[in-house]
Specification:
Helices cover about 25% and strands about 35% of the residues. The chain has helices at about 45-50, 95-105, 110-120, 135-150, 165-185, 195-200, 220-225, 230-235, and strands spanning about 5-10, 20-25, 30-35, 60-65, 65, 80, 155-160, 190, 205-210, 210-215, 240-250, 250-255, 255-260, 265-270, 275-280, 285-295, 300-305, 310-315, 325-330, 340. The two termini are about 40 Å apart. The strands form four sheets. A six-stranded mixed sheet has the order 6-7-8-3-9-10, sandwiched between helices. With about 350 residues, it is α+β, with helices and mostly antiparallel strands. α2 (about 95-105) packs across α3 (about 110-120). The chain has two domains: about 5-230, Rossmann fold (3-Layer(aba) Sandwich), CATH 3.40.50; about 240-340, Nucleic acid-binding proteins (OB fold (Dihydrolipoamide Acetyltransferase, E2P), Beta Barrel), CATH 2.40.50. The structure holds adenosine-5'-triphosphate. Adenosine-5'-triphosphate binds near residues 37, 39 and 40.
Length: about 350
Amino acid sequence: MAALELRHLIKRFAGGVVGVDDVTLTVGDGAFTALVGPSGCGKTTILRMVAGLEEPTSGAVVIGGREVTHLPPAARDVAMVFQNYALYPHLTVRENIGFPLKVRKTQGAEVARRVAHAAELLEIGALLDRKPAQLSGGQRQRVALARAIVREPALFLFDEPLSNLDAQVRAQTRAELVALHRRLGATMLFVTHDQVEAMTMAQSVAVMAQGRVLQEAPPMALYREPQTLAVARLIGSPSINTLVGRTTGERFEGALTCTTTAAPHGDVVLAVRPEHLVLGTAIDAAPATVLLVEPLGPESLVRLRLRSGDVVVARVAGEATCRMGDDVGVRVAAGEGHCFRAGDGTRLT
Ligand code: ATP
């Protein structure tokens, strides 16, 4: 396996669209990094430049210490798994998995050995004589993974590989991929617009917007300490609540108030996760009206309108005790909430 380094990668398409705008990123040897961000932020373009399917305008791609920026895909030792699996319909599962080896003129006995090994890892040994049309979506995905594994590449690239699967199979495949990563000790770069996928699978998550990496950190660090308002908004579901106000002394003052370590500043955005809004009648609670209660089983989401007109969402454990139309109090849990400068969204706390 090998580390991947992207150095000041830029991709400007004909017509002037900047798909990737100066991205520098390292995926350590054997590490699992996810690129996450909204549609069009440049994720796929990065993967394609790493795979050699797209030529960067400038910058470098380095795999295992070797610069490969201008090498053809076949010379890079990279395996890419796509969203649509791209299996050959007329070949059996066995032939599909062995295909990359056959192309490389690998010996028959070696092909058979590696196919059997990959099939065992992914528990698809019983499906080897079937055609892709005779498989479920989850099984096809595993065949596509097995086909990537047989090559024993220096680096795995995944482009939204789970998005065609239904919710249950997706959750299972997510867990399988994490286990596979551990077993293979492989270096993996995974692209997704689904933050849950990124957060649950990767050791490090790079959040992208408009061709740039906004922040890269381990999942929980990203969730707990977003460095910009944009990252705070992109990570977490339901989205983080935001309220405009100002900080004076040790307090944020706006539609809700709370203590903060931010320096005094006008035009501040307070961002509070739904689980850090507390419902009740404490003296510092702000009056609010319940717009909607959504019971989810282990927790409930309570949508509230503050007197200011701002709408916020609170996450409460179990079943909510309030009902639609109730007047309640809401406050920020002690020590929670992030303050950002309203103009450029940089962190103040
Ligand atoms: P999605 O999640 O929708 O796949 P993405 O984050 O992978 O999005 P990219 O496909 O990398 O985004 O595209 C990044 C930007 O570059 C977009 O604005 C896109 O329209 C533009 N783009 C991509 N390919 C080309 C191309 N061949 N020519 C011109 N512009 C392109």
